[in-house]
Design a protein that fits this description.
Pfam family, one: Biotin_lipoyl
CATH architecture of the largest domain: Beta Barrel
Radius of gyration: 20 Å
Keywords: Biotin
Protein name: Biotin-dependent enzyme
Shape: elongated
InterPro entries: Biotin_BS, Biotin_Carboxyl_Carrier/Decarb, Biotin_lipoyl, Single_hybrid_motif
CATH class of the largest domain: Mainly Beta
CATH topology of the largest domain: OB fold (Dihydrolipoamide Acetyltransferase, E2P)
Helix content: under 10%
Strand content: over 45%
Structural class: mainly beta
Number of strands: 15
Length: 162
Amino acid sequence: MTTNNFKVKVDDTFEFDFNDTTLSEIDAVATGKNSYHALDKSKSFHSEIIDQNFTDKEYTVRVNNTDFKVHIDNALDIAIKAMGFTIGATKNVNSIKAPMPGLILDVQVQVGDTVTQDTPLLILEAMKMENLLSSPRDGVIKSITAAVGDAVDKGQLLIEFE
């Protein structure tokens, strides 16, 4: 059985690690669509999800009338950060660089192509995994410096935008 791991950051200050076991030990019941009641060491907590941004995995949670900003990373997010990726990087990116050393398996765009955010650009094989690199923004491909079969180093320029 696979264990799911989560890293939870609250108000950019406190970090907590959770897994399937720790989550199953939480004494909580749903009291509404986005509200819960929990007990911890005989203390009662009323919580409600006030705001949610699924894309950035950020939530505003009200616990006993105090609001907290909560960010949740799953096991994949944690692994990606460990490999040097940054999630939710700025949208003013003018180039794509190799996030890790690897082998270019496929280039899915050409110079002059107009792309939108999340358009697949290329596939980089690293650590026996295929990693799809997508466009972080809308734009036009200015240059492609890597070709299928190229071995690339971390930080090597792969694609530039106009």
